[in-house]
Amino acid sequence: ALHTAMARQNEYRALSAEKFSSISALANPDLRPEQSALSALWRNLLLADEHTWEADRGITDPQSQESMQQRDVKDARSTDARRLINHILQRTMSALADQIPNGSGTLIVFNSLNWQRTSLVETDLDNGQEIVDLSTHQTILLEVLNTGKSVRHVRFLASDVPAVGYKCYQLRAAKSERPVPVAGGGSVLENRYYRVELDASSGAIRSIFDKELNRELVDRSSSYRFNQYVYVTGADESPNRLIDYSSVTPVPQLTPHGADSGKIESVVSLPFEDVAWLESSGVNTPRIETEIILPKDQKRIEIVNHVRKDKVYTKEGVYFAFPFAMLHPQFKYALQNGYIDPAKDLLPGGGREWFSIQQWVGVQQDNVAAAIMPIDAPLVALGDIVRGTWPTEFGDRKGTIFSYVMNNYWDTNYVGGQGGDFTFRYVITSASALDPPALTRMGWEALTPLETDVITYQDKSVDRPAPLDAVHGSFLNVDNPGVVLLTWKQAEDHIGYILRFVEIAGRAATVGITSPILDIQSAWRCNAMEENQQSLAVAEKGVRFDVSPYEIVTVRVQGKPALTAAH
To answer: Among 351, 516, 506, 364, which Cα is nearest to 440's?
Structure first.
């Protein structure tokens, strides 16, 4: 589960690294994209996802030297990919900072998505410093997450960060001591959208009342609380259907155990969010720390679960349960470039026990809909935990979504259990109906963090022209909100740049793009192999192309850097 979460994060942050590698080279023509590092990164991502890693003793003797060495190689694909992403982002963001006319002590927040964003950002801040928004000259409100000898790790709300762009903040000595929020009591978080009632004993949520819909979202009759940790025992006796993939062996007897012995550690109200910390424990899981974040002005609930789990060798499954108050809902979830209703759209023979999702999974009944964005765990079970019954029809299921975070049922999990520290994050929202394009954009935001860079005095040791705006700027303008910019990369043949988009609104449309850092002189529509298929007309230094519903479109653009000429 640890490396699955890391691989899922890598897949989205790699796109940010690739985009900013291209952007930094266009902003400073003396630079080139880090092609060797990018190639190594994509190779690691591919091999981290590749399924047939297995030593021949991996099943019968999971603790053998051969098995452990093979596992180390597999795990290193994720850790090395993360290292390369950080390396590429640090270098490219530093190169872009060099083009911004700000001095030491500037925090730059970068957004790789093609729409303006307002999201939480975490950074380290020297003790005694504060953050000032250079667009408003207002001091930013901070939440201090932890304090070290010389720095504080803080969280703040970065507002209106431009699309495929950046926003600058000043770090300066605090003019006055700001009051530290005091953790209070209580069991309720509330904003203008939701009233969230906590459940101390389970370390989870008892109730979510949607004020706009005037409806309770949580099934309070469920045996599970909302976001409750669920540990499942059973399936140790072989053969059984859960571990043998057979429809004739016995269905195993499974017993779910909800987390208990919980308590509310604190509830804090901040100017931009309310935050609750809860603690609980479960079977073979001595500590579960849950942070629930309710932003003041956004219709969303963010949840962070830190899990410390013992390693065991009996069969186990682990979930977080999200019981919505719907008896006969319609389920939907996001695929790579579309959405699926598992009750209608699966091919005969398709698996109906668990599902692999992209940005979100949702439920809808009557005039109420809700969705979850699982940031770290790509598998879900719908209606019930995975029991190995292998249904041939989806059937009628209650509206409980189970985030399937780990198990050791499968031989490729090296027979043994998983132990150590894990983090599982979720974003929850609701509306009167599922809005797949809006949910996909929210999911992309949840999975694609805003990246940060701090200008130090070493970065500005040489005085040179810096043509970018000192407050904020955008590197690409996309005039259609129904598409997502997947990548902006150097073409494989080094002739121009490749921009790839996916249509998410399910509508045929025309898309226009322009870039203040690239004077586009020619453009082609390409296939996925970057082979030119159709010449595109260039007008006013931009280009337009047509897109079909859910289509992935690849465009090659050629031109010259425009930043130096424009300034």
So the answer is: 506
Using CA atoms, how far apart are residues 284 and 416, in angstroms rounded to an integer?
A: 14
Place of tokens 């424009």: 566
Q: At what angle do helices 65-97 and 35-49 cross, to 10 degrees?
A: 140
List pLDDT tens digits, range 108-155.
999 999 999 999 999 999 999 999 999 999 999 999 999 999 999 999
Closest to 15 (Cα-Cα) out of 436, 504, 447: 447
Q: Above 80 in pLDDT, residue 413?
A: no
CA distances from 336 to 242, 290, 501, 502, 550 (A): 28, 30, 12, 9, 9
Tokens representing residue 466 in the block: 């810096």
Residue 492: name the closest of 99, 33, 8 by CA.
Answer: 33
Q: Both tokens of residue 160?
A: 């209106």
My answer on whether omega of the bond before 101 falls inside 30° of 0, hence cis, is: no
Q: Which residue has the higher pLDDT, 507 or 418?
A: 507
C-alpha dist (Å) from residue 236 to 4, 61, 409: 24, 17, 9
Task: Give the Cα separation of 398 and 384 in Å (integer).
Answer: 8
Over pLDDT 90: what percentage of the chain?
84
How is 247-298 classified by DSSP, letter by letter? SSSPPP-EEEEE-EEEEEEEEEE-SSEEEEEEEEEETTEEEEEEEEEEESSS
